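Risk register update: the risk of archive-format incompatibility is retired. Evidence:
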Amino acid sequence: MKRGSGSGAIDNARLDPAWKYCKPIPDNKNGIICNFCGLVHQSGGITFFKYHLSHTDLRKNSRKCSNVPPEVKQEIRNLLKMKDHAKQKKAEKMKEIREELRQGLRDEDEDEEDVFMYHADLDPTE
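Archived output:
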């Protein structure tokens, strides 16, 4: 089976639980139609749609779904919290790795003897 073919919306349908609450727009990989209110999102994809359902868009760029059931709203909020938590963990891990690498480089610098460079025409014994 060929990977990467088809629209992004259809390919990701299996990956994100929020897809069960919307339909992709044919020939628009970021377009979504809300199953609850019928609102058509031409762009923004599934993440933007989650803000529509959860009413948690900090930038206030998405219209809140007026017909979303409370349990669905809470489910989507939990998904967004899990995603934020995963992002924070990843950032912390990356910070640890960078610090370990920096410390390793410092240790190597301390262990190495000083190396002097001489001009090609200069005799080091002089």
